[in-house]
Each structure stands twice: as structure tokens, then as C-alpha cells.
Amino acid sequence: MRFIASSLSLIIAAAPISPLDAFVSKPNGLTFGIRKQQLSNNGRSTNLMMNIEKTDTEKTIKVGVIGCGRIGLVHLGAITKAPNVLPVIVSNPTISKAESAAATYGVPKFSSDAMDVITDPEVDAVWICSPSQFHADQIKACAANGKDIFCEKPIATDLAETVEAINACQEAGVKLMIGLQRRFDQNFLRVKDAIRDKEVGEPIMIKLCSRDPEPPPFEYVKGGGGIFNDMAVHDLDMTRFLAGSDPIDILAIGSTHIDKSIEVLPGSEKYDTASCIVRYPNGVQAMVDVCRQSSYGYDQRAEVLGTKGMIATDNVYPNTAKIYKNDFTGNADMPYDFFLSRYNEAYVTETIAFCEALVNDTPVPCTGEDGLVALVMSIAADMSAAENRWVEFSEVVQAVYCKSPTECSLLSQNDVFPDGFKPKTDAVELLS
To answer: Which of 91, 260, 270, 291: disulfide with 211, CB 3.0–4.6 Å?
Structure first.
């Protein structure tokens, strides 16, 4: 049963607004909080503010959010802080969660049906924060209704469905941004800046590690697509982001050390530990290691070796306090032990980046194609680990699309894939 309601009577339960907020009265008599530009101690604006192009008439973008779970609430909270962006409807299959989110953030409408968000005539753009299996269909529905889209990764776990969703957005002329939040993390961005500005010279080697505080339950791993798809995909994308070019091929291995119960699962679902080597143009090498358990907290680090030096990031801690004793010297507390704590600012920053692209009508900073390439890289890593060999990324595309010479020829002209990911121009060779 579909349920849609107004939360106007619930806005009195909204979260407190800080002294930095201004209050603006709306025509309906309600008062909404508008975040002004926040200043750091040195008087400079923080990186969480939007850059709005000055025009004679300010444009307000009205948005809807599908999914009021943890990620949906992070994005909704960021949306409410973004100038000229107004959330008007939220949805969640459990209606009480949608009602609660609407009350907390002053959203006038809530529903149990995602289509109420997608078809709402007020809505200009939709945030898709629903479970992964619904993403592709919801993206295509948004495109059909002329809505710009922000979607948490992945677009889909199936390559063909991913391309269909991207094509639907291109044909409809709507924006599609994919949530690869690590691209907006200040630590990784500083490494990217160092590469761009040649602070460490030309890059030689890129290293990334991603280790979770504790393994997920069996039921999460089962059917999750494997360690390369549900975990390493962020790190594989980050190697491409830092390298600034498209990868050539990959070699991956996996093993099980933490939770022996998952060894019965198929493919890379049976691994809780994995490593990848990715080759990039100009001989640049990228190495990724992931593990589902780290006894010392959430371990997320990057390192780039260049011809003139090295840059590396440390983990992020709740504070900078250190303890000095005769038997211990080091941080007083462990690193953040949950991805929402570790990357909270990055989630907010990527949300505001999309809001900025909507208000200013500029290209999004993280495209559907970026999400597609990350998926291809994770699929190729899975293939490499299963077959114990180097895998070229074009092989993944060929395996899905090259059913006939005509189909491969058409794909070789498709701009959705980077050049190195496309099948050979002479499609007949693929069928021999």
C-alpha cells in the first residue's frame, strides 16, 4: 500500500539550529533554518560551503531523497545546509523512518513509495540512497521523469544494467552523479593535489590499504558480490583518481584468514583478505590491499611515491591527544572505527558538490562513467583472482557485449567506456 503524508505538523520536532543559522519565514508561516557561511578559527571559510554563481534571480533547486537509512540521513542533513537547495519529499519503505526524517529535517512530505519522490512535479533532482538492487531501475525512472540524479554506488552490480542506466540519463539529458565519497575526503584530495602540482615529481607507485575494524556477518557477505565488488571497489577507483588516467590491466589474489565460515561461499565472496596490482600508462603501478578485520581500528591510508619524493596519509582520529608512559607512547584513542564517522565530512562535501552543480548547472564531479569504470575494475579483479592471471579491462566488456561482430563493432564506437576498456575495433577477431 502506498502512503504519502505531509510532515508540516511535525516540524516542531526538527533538530536544533546553531547560532550560525539564519531564520527565514516561508509563506506558509513556518520557519526554516538556513546555514550561513561557516568560518574556521582563522576566519577562512571551511570546505563544506557551496560556491554559488551570482545571478539576478537566485535559483532554488527542489529535491527528494529515496531511502532514510544511515546514508540517506547523512545526505539529507547535508542538503539542508546547502544554499538554494530545498528538500521537499523523502521516502522509505518503512514509513516511520520517512516520517521521522521529514520531522527532523523539516521536509514537508514523506512517503513509503520511491515513485512518489520520482514523479513529484516539484522535484528537480533525486538522491537515491536505497539498497543497491533498486538503483538502476530508480535511475531509469528518474531519467524518464526528467530528474537529475545523485546515486550511491553502485549504479548496478550487473555491467549491462549499469550501461543501460547511464544511457538513459544521457538520452534524457539529466545529470547523474555517483557517490564515490573517498574522492571528496580531504586526506586523499591532498594527495591528489600533490600529484597534480608535481610536489613529489612524476608518480611511480600508488599504494592504498582498506581494513575494516571487524568482519561483517555471514548474511552480509553472502550475495554481496565478493570482496572486490563490495569493498575493494573504493580503493580501485581511488587508484584511478590519483593516477589521473585509465588503467590497463589487473592482477588480484584473495584468501581467508578471519572468518572461516565464508569459505563455503562462491567466487570472491569466500575471501576476507585480498590484494591487487593495477598497471597504468607510463609504467605507473598501483597496489591495493583490503582486509575485513583490523584489530587496531578502521585503517584507510594512501601513499604515492614520485620521482622527487613521497606523500602519504595517516588514519583519522577523533582527537589529536597522545599519551606518554613508560610502557606506551601514542594516540590516546583508536582511529575512527566506522565508515560514517571516518568519512562523514566527505559525504557532506560530495553532497554539496552535487548541489553546486545543480544550482550552477555545471558538470558533476563524479560521473556515471566513473561508477562504471570502478565496476569494471572490480569485476576484472574478481576474474583475475579466479583464473590466477592478469586480466585486461576490455575483456570484461567483451565478455558481456561481444555476442556478435555487429554488437562489438557498435560498442567500439560507444563513448560510455574509456578507450582502453573497449573491445578491439575488428570485432570478428573476438569470435575466432
So the answer is: 291
